[in-house]
Design brief:
The N and C termini lie far apart (about 45 Å). It is elongated and about 60 Å long. With about 200 residues, the chain is an alpha+beta fold. The strands form three sheets. Strands 3-4-5-6 form a four-stranded mixed beta sheet. The chain has a three-stranded antiparallel beta sheet with strand order 7-9-8. The longest helix is centred in the C-terminal third of the chain and has 14 residues. The protein has two domains: about 100 residues, Trna Endonuclease, Chain: A, domain 1 (3-Layer(aba) Sandwich), CATH 3.40.1350; about 80 residues, Arc Repressor Mutant, subunit A (Orthogonal Bundle). A hairpin with a 2-residue loop joins strand 3 and strand 4. Helices cover about 35% and strands about 25% of the residues.
Amino acid sequence: MSDSRLPRRFDLFTSAKTACAIRARHPALHEALVQATLDPSVRSIGYQAKAIVGAAEVTIDAVIMQQDEGRYLLDVVPARQLRDLEQEGLVRLAVRELELQVKTVTMEELRAQPRRGNCAFVWSYKERAVPVGIRMRVLQALRDDGPMELGRLLEGLHADRDPAPAVMSMACNDLIEIDLASHRLGPGSMVRART
């Protein structure tokens, strides 16, 4: 018999950038977490359930992203929890005391193309195993030649099988960056090693 209070397994989001499993209680939050994972400016994604405000413990249920510019609370509009005015005020105080900036993401931003389609496509390869030989060749090529177009990278790998799934998996595993926001994913998409 299962306990309905426990999160279902598919509600838990993990990636190479998450410090722990994050309960993605809403599909929009899950999508925002996928897009954040594939965003080169996001270094890590964490979760904080509670914070202390004055002498009170406050439930903040916060997804926190470490980006190049600082720490952000991920505020996904369609996934917001309903709070009364007092709770909302305490959460805002906690966010201020934690010195978090707020990154608000609307449904329109989540649906924006080409990023949404590109992220969904790349993320579909997250579980794909990457042979060590291909991993080493990809990383060596990007180290030696710097950022390059995806088509050029794939042509230079000389693999027995199509190396594209392995490259997509490497992006999911935070080993490389692919520009997923500028254009529809294709031969001209820029790829670079993670720094």
